[in-house]
Amino acid sequence: MVRPRLGQGVEVHVPATTANVGPGFDCLGAALELDNVFEMRAIEGGSERFDLIIEGSEGAHLRGGPDNLVYRAAQRVWKEAGEEPVALEARVRLAVPPARGLGSSATAIVAGLIGANALVGEPLSKEKLLELAIDIEGHPDNVVPSVVGGLCLTAKAASQRWRVVRCEWSPLVQAVVAIPAIRLTTSEARRAMPKAIPVGDAVINMGSLTLLLQGLRTGNGDLIIDGMNDRLHEPYRWGLIHGGKVVREAAIDAGAWGCVISGAGPSLLALCPPAVAEAVSQAMVRAWHKAGVESRSAVLGIQQEGSRWSPLPDKID
Questions:
Q1: Which terminal residue of the chain, N or C, has fewer Cβ atoms less than 10 Å from its own Cβ?
Q2: pTM score
Q3: What is the pLDDT of residue 84?
Q4: Which stretches of the chain are DSSP H helices?
Q5: Is 194 helix (H, G, I), strand (E, B) or coil?
Q6: What is the pLDDT of residue 5?
């Protein structure tokens, strides 16, 4: 364990994620081939100094300071490692839009953890970083695939350990994400959900999740169609997304097996055969436009590598 030099820096790439994928509420998520890039450097100043520089118009509202998620995560690493905190500067190339259901906050947490750990010689294991990430975020569905990549099912076992299972995603299944020019916070989406759900709905979700995972593994569209059925969160959240149901129907009409809310929304995730992915993407944008909401869409692969870091040359002022 070493104390970082002034001007020492690391670059951390963290992928976007899509959580839940329908029935996998708070436990299933996949990393997408869309990265936020964080350049983090040790700078002069006290333990409360965190300077944030955003490259990209989407993050104009984001601020630095000690309460920023990146710095809060970094502080957790240094506390666990028994290291004194240092002032940091983070320059972020923002590709994952905030408050859109694509794991933007998870990228901040993961970047803070991995970057801070790298700056002090990586005293914490990946397993410990995962534990800290889940604790900060409050649920594992975004942060786990952000760290390790791929499609991940994460559960807290009876032993109180977090267990992560990497699941297969067939190349016969294409992900299409439509991102509207509206925001929806996770807290708002969670408030829309009831405090309790009927046992029957829970049973249906367990069955749907089983079908979905088998469909994603094999590329069986019939299983995916039935597997993307959720009773826990989506019925209560669709009303928060202006035009969302119309966009969902447009995606299915264009050949998608199903279309669900990505994370807390408002972005939507459609799954389809690769041959119709572009048609599905265009149909979703057109449907949102007709509903009075501008949007953009992307046909994205599943990012299997997870987060990664590399050293930067020291910056001498």
A1: C
A2: 0.94
A3: 87
A4: 69-81, 104-119, 126-137, 143-148, 186-191, 199-218, 221-227, 234-237, 244-253, 277-290
A5: coil
A6: 81
What does each C-alpha distance from 180 to 146, 152, 268 come to in angstroms? 22, 26, 9
Please say whether the beta carbons of 271 and 175 come within 8 A: yes
> What is the rounded CA–CA span in Å between residue 38 and residue 308?
11
Helix (H/G/I), strand (E/B), else coil: 13: strand
State how far the Cα of 182 lies from the Cα of 295, in Å rounded to an integer. 9
Residues in the chain with pLDDT < 50?
none
Give the HSE-up count for residue 203: Cα atoms under 13 Å, Cβ half-sphere: 3
In the block, which residue shows the tokens 């953009």? 296
pLDDT for 315 equals 77
Per-residue DSSP letter, 119: H
Partners of 151 in the beta sheet?
30, 167
Backbone angles phi, psi at 304, to 5 degrees: -95, -15
Cα separation, 85 vs 272, whole angstroms: 47
Phi, psi (rounded to 5 degrees) for 156: -90, 115
- Minimal CA–CA distance to 70: which of 114, 16, 20, 111? 111
Sign of CA dihedral 271, 184, 297, 308: negative
- Helix (H/G/I), strand (E/B), else coil: 134: helix
Q: Determine whether 310 is exposed, middle or buried from the number of CB atoms within 10 Å of its CB (0-12, 13-18, 19+).
A: exposed
- Sheet order of strands, 174-180 included: 258-261, 268-272, 174-180, 295-300
CA distance 224 to 317: 55
Residue 294 backbone phi and psi in degrees, to 5: -80, 150
Tell me the per-residue pLDDT of 20-62, one tens digit each, with 9 for 90 and over.
999 999 999 999 999 999 999 999 988 889 989 888 777 667 7
Q: Using the structure block, give the residue that is written with the tokens 């996949």.
A: 30
Q: State both tokens at 88.
A: 């940091």
Contact between 265 and 101 under an 8 Å Cβ cutoff? The reply is yes
